[in-house]
Amino acid sequence: MTAKATIAVGQSADVSSIVQRSDTAATPVGGEVRAVATYLGEEGKLFRFKVEAFDEAGSIGEGEHLRAIIATERLLAGAAKRKAVRRP
To answer: Which tens digits make up the pLDDT trace of 3-21?
Structure first.
C-alpha cells in the first residue's frame, strides 16, 4: 500500500512528525549534495523513511524521518489558535 492510496479527501500528507539525523562528514561551501529517501513502511499512523545524504566524495549523513497524514482542517485550526495567541 502506498501513502497516496491511504489519503482520503480532506487530508494532507505533508506533515513532518519526527526527524532524527546524524552528520558524518562536512561538505565544502558550494559543494553539490544529493539526498536519497527510502520508504521503510508504516508504524501505526506514521510513515517511516530512511534518509541518506551524499556529496561528491561519499556519504555525509543519514537519518530517519517519520511523517503523518492528518486532516487539513485540524492542521489549519491548530495554526489559527497559535496565531491568535502570538505575542509581539
So the answer is: 555 666 666 656 777 788 8
Euclidean distance between CA atoms 66 and 20, whole angstroms? 9
Looking at per-residue confidence, does 68 or 29 come out higher? 29
For the chain, report the end-to-end CA distance as a whole number of angstroms. Answer: 46
* pLDDT over threshold 60, residue 24: yes
> How far is it, in rounded angstroms, from Cα 1 to Cα 62?
25
Q: Is residue 2 part of a domain?
A: no
Is 68 among the domain residues? yes
Domain interval for residue 71: 10-84
Report the C-alpha gap between 73 and 9 in whole angstroms: 11
Whether the pTM exceeds 0.90: the reply is no
What is the signed CA dihedral for 67, 73, 76, 78, rounded to 10 degrees?
-80
CB 47 within 8 A of CB 11: no
